[in-house]
Amino acid sequence: MTDGPVQALLERFPMGDGLPAQQRELSGQVQAMEDERITATEERTRLNVELEATLQTEVLPELLLQRGDLEEAQAESEQDLVVAQLAHELLVAAIYDFEKQNQDPVIQHAQRLVEQVVPSWGTLIMEHPAGGKPTITRDSTSGRLSSDRLSDGARALLHLGIRLAFAERDAERRGLALPLICDDPFAHFDDDRTRGALELLGDTSKRHQVILFTCETATRTLAADLGAHVINL
Asked: Are 113 and 69 in a shared domain?
């Protein structure tokens, strides 16, 4: 059984005459169509290149303009940031100076007490950060340090000075000097600070009864040398 197109060719050319010519004609048509396809592809490629070049020519200046605007806005933002940072630093400095010059009398007295032990201690400042708890800072020639960044010995001395200052302020308010009980407050002190702190307690004992507990033989001996009444338990 013969396919339809083949049967049609056989009927048109019963002896096979003209088939080669027909083949050549079809081959020519195929080649012509292929040439047209190649030409169309090349033209499409050329048009795409022209389109891309046109887009770049039209879009690039706009992009450059946008970049310029962004760079200008960035420069203005950076300048505003510098101004804001400077204003913040000035405000912080103003607040710090105000707090430094207007300290609570208890803090000022605590500073004087601490300076009896360490004359080069520096200035005690109670700061009130926004939204936070008050903090006590030592401002000295070596810089500013909050109490939680001090050494154990320095922090112990600071706390001792503040407690004594509060006790004396309370005695003034009440008109009654209550006894002060200290439980081995010199654990983190070196020898010099221990002596100075004992002398400070000796001075305080002129206004308050001071009871000092210690398990350190050296502290007991030094206290006795400074005139303390020692009781062994």
From this structure: no
